[in-house]
Design a protein that fits this description.
2 copies of one chain form a homodimer. Chain A is mainly alpha-helical. Chain A is built from 17 helices and 2 strands.
């Protein structure tokens, strides 16, 4: 269990990478979260520890716990309660990743073999449940019913979003509104909840809670849209997962929806075959990328993402200027401009 | 009861004004709707007829029934069921206007004295209920449980939106997300439902229903944002209602939220006094407009509206090109670029 979580090098600001800058700003808190992650994912059953360690120490951006940590400090909180709760948020996120990879039958996650590829589907499902339970255990230790309400509700909403996504898989008739509803649920709700948890520990007013919900929700929507764009536009090596995964899985994302809505009959026939019918041939992914570029689907999906980013930015306006606010604003830009 | 509803001159396309063009395209249907409106708002109680006639023959854009009519034709519907249902949609809209004016204590509506100013609050409340009932009566005559489900749900959502708006009145801490939730409910839901009703009579698939929901919902959000911008930016004579109404009522709209979020301390003090405290002095409205311009609040609210307009436009992509589709796309642009 002695794995060192070294993804985020903790050095002093200013940084070029906004994610590293934010990590540096809450370095002590983040170190505590990483300790808690190692401690709380431990189990007497070696398979659980091994699998949990595989998926959690693979790193990821730790974006959600970072939000909880930074928001608490933005709200002048000086205690340590947010550390356990940020850990809880990361466990919920990791649990949904594990279950997602099983549902999607993904082979890669963050550039490494996915847990289900290494340990099998059954173990991944069960360890996801284990992490879920540990997440709630951490919340119960904290003792705030408000936090329990926020995160249990978020968990239910996430599941609903995942189910909705499953139902629309390969359905080329999925509307942009349905897509927005899905990503709001499966992704943005946890971003919003992570931020709100930071506000709860700092005893903030309803106004600040609402501003932070707006921030998290819209940041989360922007994040997911950009994720979905990157699956068609990223450079494989930088992305750290297989480019074209969504395409292969027939996942209906915004670039696909825009391309379908704007396509002519032959293009719609193409989308129906490759996404709807799942009948893919060599060169189909390149053709999909080419159509998307021609129809402005990737460009306009990014334009949509910027809209949500703008709402997120504006929502922090009510908070006094401080390094945490500046770092969170940079995270909005990073979320949209990132290449991975 | 012989009032002639002459707001929309019915002439042949092409037109400069997209609203007139759309009206001309469904001229026969619209004439039938106007006949139904006159017929169904009639009552043995003269006060009801007089008041209903006052508010309905004042005109308005008839945008919602036009959507229901045009969508049915877009979907190749050739019958007349949509005429009664479009009338029902307009009655629901008119009922909410009547109740709104009572709640807001408005003196002007569409450039004329509001019904409550002329007939009193009690009559306005009751005639609103009368029109609501007539709306449902029309739906029951049509006999579609699906339409009843859509429009009864919309009515409940609208009421919730109005209550939410009431609760946030004068609350300068209202977030942009809360604002979006409110206008989605109080305005956009009926736009979406009007479109969906057109799809129901044409027996369209779930895919087309969903595309039309996306169209109506996002058009409605754009419409309300622009409405809220016009209250600070329009030329009084063109607007047909009192400019600055929202400001006087302390209504929290997007331009206000953006101005507050971006304001410095003295500006926030200003907003707290005039909106939060309702303590207005001469020149405050002009100062509000000036701050909004300086902070880019009106410009960026319009930018937000364009985002929703873009989603609405894209959502019609799955329909074959025909004059109805072209006219509906023009309505999106009109909604955003209008000056009244």
């Amino acid at each position: 269990m002695g794995a060192v979580l070294s993804l985020h090098k903790i050095t002093s600001p200013p940084q070029c990478d906004p994610l590293e800058a934010l990590s540096a700003l809450v370095a002590d808190d983040l170190a505590a979260v990483n300790r808690l992650i190692l401690e709380r994912m431990d189990s007497d059953v070696p398979l659980i520890s091994d699998l949990a360690q595989h998926v959690i120490s693979a790193g990821g951006k730790r974006l959600r716990p970072l939000l909880a940590l930074a928001v608490a400090r933005l709200c002048d909180y000086e205690g340590t309660r947010h550390q356990k709760l940020a850990t809880s948020v990361e466990f919920i996120h990791t649990a949904t990743l594990l279950h997602d990879d099983v549902v999607d039958a993904s082979l890669l996650r963050r550039g490494s073999s996915s847990a289900n590829a290494l340990f099998g589907n059954q173990a991944s499902v069960l360890v996801g449940d284990f992490l879920f339970s540990r997440a709630f255990h951490l919340m119960v230790e904290d003792g705030s019913l408000e936090v329990l309400r926020i995160l249990s509700n978020a968990s239910a909403v996430i599941s609903q979003g995942e189910v909705l996504q499953l139902v629309t898989q390969r359905d080329t008739a999925t509307s942009e509104q349905a897509y927005l509803d899905i990503i709001s649920a499966k992704t943005a709700e946890l971003f919003a909840s992570a931020c709100r948890v930071g506000a709860v520990v700092a005893n903030k007013t309803a106004a600040e809670d609402d501003a932070l919900r707006t921030f998290g929700l819209n940041l989360g929507i922007a994040f997911q849209i950009v994720d979905d764009v990157l699956d068609y536009s990223a450079v494989q090596e930088k992305l750290g997962k297989t480019i074209g995964d969504d395409f292969r899985e027939g996942k209906i994302t915004l670039p696909v929806i825009l391309a379908i809505n704007r396509g002519d009959e032959s293009e719609r026939h193409f989308w129906q075959r490759v996404i709807g019918g799942g009948d893919k041939q060599d060169g189909d992914f390149v053709r999909a990328q080419e159509i998307m570029r021609r129809r402005g689907a990737l460009r306009d999906a990014m334009e949509r993402a910027r809209h949500y980013g703008a709402i997120a930015r504006d929502s922090l306006g009510i908070f006094d200027s401080n390094p945490y606010k500046a770092a969170l604003l940079d995270i909005v830009d990073f979320t949209i401009e990132r290449k991975f």
